[in-house]
Amino acid sequence: MKKILLTLALVFSTAFLFAQQTYPVNGSYDVRPGLYAFTNANIVVNANQTISNGVLLVKDKTIQSVGTGTAIPKGYVVIDLKGKYIYPSLIDAFTSYGIPEAQRAGAAGGFGGFGGRQSVFTSTKKGAYNWNESIRPETEVRTVFTIDTKKADDLRKAGFGSVNAISRDGIARGTSAAVTLNDGKENEVMLNDQSAANYSFNRGTSSNDYPSSLMGSIALLRQTYMDASWYKGQKEEYNISLEQFNKQQGLPQLFEADGWANILRADKVAKEFGKQFIIKSTGDEYQRVDAVKATGATLIIPISFPKAFDVEDPSDARNLSLAQLKSWELAPTNPGVLEKAGIKFALTTYGLDAPRDFWANIQQAISNGLSEKQALMAVTEIPAGILGINDKVGTLEKGKLANFLITSENLFKSGNIIFENWVQGKRFVVNKMDVTDLRGTYNLNIDGVGSTILRITGTAGGSVAAIERLGADSVKTNATFTRNGDWVTITFNLKKNPTGDVRLSGYLTGASPLAFSGDVIVNAMAAGSWNGSFKEAAKEAPKRDEPAKPAIANGPLIFPFIAFGNTTMPVQETVLLKNATVWTNEKEGILQNADVLMENGKIKAVGKNLAAGSAKVIDATGKHITAGLIDEHSHIAASGGINEGAQSVSAEVRIADVINSEDVNIYRQLAGGVTTSHILHGSANAIGGQSQLIKLRWGKAPEELKFGGNDGFIKFALGENVKQSSSTSSTRFPSTRMGVEQVYVDAFTRAKEYEKAMAVKGNNVRRDLELDALVEILNNKRFITCHSYVQSEINMLIHVADSLGFKINTFTHILEGYKVADKMKAHGIAASTFSDWWAYKMEVQEAIPYNGKIMHNVGITTAFNSDDAEMARRLNQEAGKSVLYGGVPEEDALKFVTLNPARMLHVDNRVGSIKVGKDADVVIWSANPLSIYAKAEKTFVDGIAYWDIDRDAQVQKAQKTEKARIIQKLADSKNAGARTQRAFGERPPRLYACESEEDYWAEVNQMEGEHNHE
Hints:
By secondary structure, the chain is an alpha/beta fold. Among the domains are: 1-83 and 371-401, Urease, subunit C, domain 1 (Roll); 440-537, Beta Barrel (Lipocalin), CATH 2.40.128; 641-658 and 682-692 and 709-907, TIM Barrel (Alpha-Beta Barrel). The chain is 25% helix and 26% strand.
């Protein structure tokens, strides 16, 4: 009777607790304060303070006191929690809770009409908003937020009392709101109506074609910061988006970044404009933790980890890459790694299949190095501070909201049960406090599996389980058993079960005798129902102390985090190469039986009988040594698209923003003797993006790949790609070769006017990143490499350049260069061409294999490039073809892929030849480097052997062993009852070329939508 009265008291007191001051009541007012005294509890005030045998007093929505020996005021309902715990309710700083799902625009599919639809250049949104729909800072969650009772209930059951609600649509996403998970009205739950200004690189549902690439998104965000700054000082136009963007700069700045590389990219943009982002990541920071720490950013990291792969079938196991295997093994270490590195972070449920998986994954993280103290801070105090609500929630202190949990024991102990979750002083029962002991043996009937036996053992009324299928194909296995009061989840794999991973989710339906029922999920798909009935009680095992759990043994990190990655980075040494044939590319020519000494990353000496001193000596007798090969035209090592094809002029985008250090083609090209690559924008636009020169420093982070100290270049293009000949629906200008010429005339005319306006003191000229790059060209601070084929267009651009006062540095491809070699020579224009490509499209019908020879003979600086990840591995053979076609001398032929591209890239003072003082970018070949039989045995960059043919054999052997170890670990995990997923091979990385067409964000959003649907 006493329990009934207490329950009624709780129901009635909370029913009227939240009557709103400004809302009328249709009837009589009945507002009573909720007065509660929770006694004899272990009260965890915060991660650093726990009160034993404490008292928590709550009145209405707030905590009145926390302490020991507290006198209970008259009128308080006393709840004895002897032996139980009280914790602050948890806080999730990154959710889409209460936000209507954004309606995505039709998926695009490559530039040139984007998959058959009409191009959209400026916003279709009605009103005085930004020209680009992905810039939408006017979005305010507080105006669209709606309580979602189902999602709130799921989150409360997992222990959460407050969340940050974010609209995840666009690049500038507007403001989020911190809310409680109460079930009243929207204006009751708002804790901070503008908790943060939000950003990403994903254009979201915008119907604009631009941006279609990652580098375009970065450029648009950068330009938006500049536009907002200009907007404050002008009176020419009104722009709601820029107005709101400026107003939000005083709020916390929260950026959603997909992967550690995008953390670095986001931070770089932030630093440009004096900002510090709070960054929500995807949980792979452990792969580059030092670089992530250097950003100084506070992180919000997911606690979702890859499911184990089902590797029972060896053919399935072979599909898995080393990166997939190591990610499964090491992802759970991420929180612990960040804690050890001293990086401040909060945890989020975002990315989990369901909030109920939160605690199993927390346990996994703790087993992999995360401390319980840090885990608690990461879901209470830290997110409260991030969201500006730490005066209301996050700890249990007088005056704060009564947001707290009542649990059976330590929150992080396996088998702990969350009994109640109080939100703003309102009681939500998660599990009954009088928990039934479930330990024992049960008969189960499972759709698709048949009759089985379930055995529940362990502590806390049941925490460990095993499954046995009955019948002729009998099989036993352990199961993963999760319990929250009367709610249980049981996951297991039966080796002989063709359906694979089975998850039973259900509730206790009877207490005498015990019985269960619920749903069956097979491979994440609903597959029927199950029920179980009590058979016999568990036999008590003799009590003994549990041995301490051994530390989980994981394999080492590799850099980069893909196949052939280094467990330890190769180091710079003093190295003496002895007795080789040395192709100097200098006046000394080819030296026989000569030595090369490398020290501190430079070539220190070249000659015969050099003294070794303390140098490492490599006998190169019978071998050949050359300078490292240089690829003037490459598209490797870039992320998120190589073309920003939505506009005919995209000079604002920068390959430098999207360098991808994890591209296996870096390693493969080192194996072909390449040490330097010029990474170019594609040829979708008349004026494409700014390029980036890199050195192939395998294993280094993106910024460390950049050549450094070199002139900037930019990609121009002529021909079919620019006018989008392949598209029948594109409305993008230009659509003719005449239009291409006009694009150049218009762009440089605008650039000249812009430069003049900028020079006038006191002018409030809007900074334009596109025009900034063109002004650099006019002032010989940025140099053009132009995609070109046809003689008439080559003549046209030379004429336009002469007329408007800019210079062309290089014509690349230029398969009709032999027709205009005299004009190129007169203008000092270099040529980077193909060795023997012809007739692969209409523009190259008149290409000839003697093109390189003819241009070289005229006196043009001539190089052979790849434009192809595979061809780049054989640039030495491409150079050899010039000997075949036209009889170019061997020394000159080698210069086509070494010194000549160095000259046209303005770095011949550092690379391209074997000369004292130059960078020690050196290759040891097994034979004449122009021979098809020659192998690059060692490739040095800055004196570091990033490629070694002997070490490669060891790496391949070691990584094969590493894969086998992890595959066995996966098999053991499945046998222990872990949830698994089908073993699927990774989507192969895209190999970009000039013509690569895609809308990167349309593909990303489509994949995300498919994942969410699943």
